[in-house]
């Protein structure tokens, strides 16, 4: 007995999502499957993927170009929040999932589908991000996850697909699982599952090996307006151009590689390799500009908000009430975060060497130790007395 009449399937063209088509039709009695592939700037031709879906049995194959939306509505808010999951990963892959969930829900409404589906397994983070995102956007919509339930090994999945004319993929020379979009690449599996194995140079595509980077440093200036990156070296760029150009410039200097053991939502640890050249530099530059334009108490309080915000994205809670509430706080803090940050790129390092803003609350006449010093040094004595009074009273009582 079928679980749904018409289904919109998130489609990548890979083995699992391709096999989902005949599986949903033949095992679960779905009558019509519409596939949806999201173009998020991954740099690959999606026409063959579109054609493959139709060959596999889809009645319609959609390709949605959502790259600009991805950058403006998902990446830029994350930059304003300085999001680094477990203080390292800038969520390049995780940020794509709530957008794909929205595209699925929108397509289901447009085409009158009563369910959406994805090809995620039961061990990863993406199943959580899709299911919860879809649930938040349309709680009445069914979510089907056949790969989580069919219990087939990789070999069995390929064999099942061959029964329905899905060609077995050419044997991969690469054992890695790779996901890419405009913000970066994630690489896992194969030899990388041994935490002591150094990642081979062949897995990288966006960043150069240190030995191949230029022998002279390169300086770039990144301009921000109200927390949003808008220019590189004084030239205003649209969101896609800005990320693309920074990826090229920064990656050329070997900046943007991350090798980490991270804690997945489902409770297991995984070894992940990421390449996120532009995103890492933008977050670091943005945080530095905040140090010039935000008061100390706001900066300190915002750090805790940023950690929570990062965890919400990673855990699939982009559309949650808490995330919406934190957005309001973060947007308020960004009103004066405008200016320019100078970054020095050299041999795998991105060092911030300068910053300026018309909204700067750095006061040279107070900070200087030179002749222009206007700080009232005599006032310090009274301040220290009041500041230290609780400690003094405590010491008198406890130490006689």
Overview of this structure, please?
This protein is of the alpha/beta class and 400 residues long. The protein folds into 3 domains: 6-163, Rossmann fold (3-Layer(aba) Sandwich); 177-294 and 336-356, Argininosuccinate synthetase, chain A, domain 2, CATH 3.90.1260; 367-399, no CATH class. The protein is built from 13 helices and 14 strands. The protein has helices at 15-26, 47-55, 67-80, 96-111, 126-137, 146-149, 154-163, 239-252, 277-293, 296-314, 321-333, 364-367, 379-399, and strands spanning 6-10, 32-39, 60-65, 115-117, 142-144, 177-181, 184-188, 218-225, 228-232, 235-236, 257-263, 269-275, 339-346, 349-356. A 5-stranded parallel β-sheet has the order 3-2-1-4-5, sandwiched between helices. A 5-stranded antiparallel β-sheet has the order 10-9-8-13-14. It has a 4-stranded antiparallel β-sheet with strand order 6-7-12-11. Helix 5 (126-137) links the parallel strand 4 and strand 5. The longest helix is centred in the last third of the chain and has 21 residues, at 379-399. The radius of gyration is 25 Å and the shape is elongated. Its main location: cytoplasm. It catalyses: L-citrulline + L-aspartate + ATP = 2-(N(omega)-L-arginino)succinate + AMP + diphosphate + H(+). Belongs to the argininosuccinate synthase family. Type 1 subfamily. L-aspartate binds at residues 121, 125-126.
Q: Which descriptors apply to this entry?
A:
alpha/beta; Argininosuccinate synthetase, chain A, domain 2; argininosuccinate synthase activity; 5-stranded antiparallel sheet; 400 residues; EC 6.3.4.5; ATP binding; Arginosuc_syn_C; AS_cat/multimer_dom_body; 5-stranded parallel sheet; Rossmann fold; elongated; 3 domains
